[in-house]
Amino acid sequence: IIYNLARAFNGVLWNAIATEFEPEVIIDQIEALREILSIAGRFLTGEEVQEYCNKIIVVLQESDNRKSENESYKHQEDVEEEEIKVLERDNEKEDELHDSVADLLGALFASHQELTLPFVEFLYTNILSKTLGNNQASNQHINFSLQIISDMIEYLGIKHLPDKWVALTEALIKYAVYSQAVIRQPAVYALGVLAEKNPEEFQAIADHVIQTLRQAIQIPIHSQDEKIEYGNAQDNSVAALGKIVKALGDKVNFQEILQFWLKYLPLRLSLIHISEPTRLLSISYAVFCLKKKK
Question: What is the pTM of this model?
Answer without folding.
Answer: 0.84
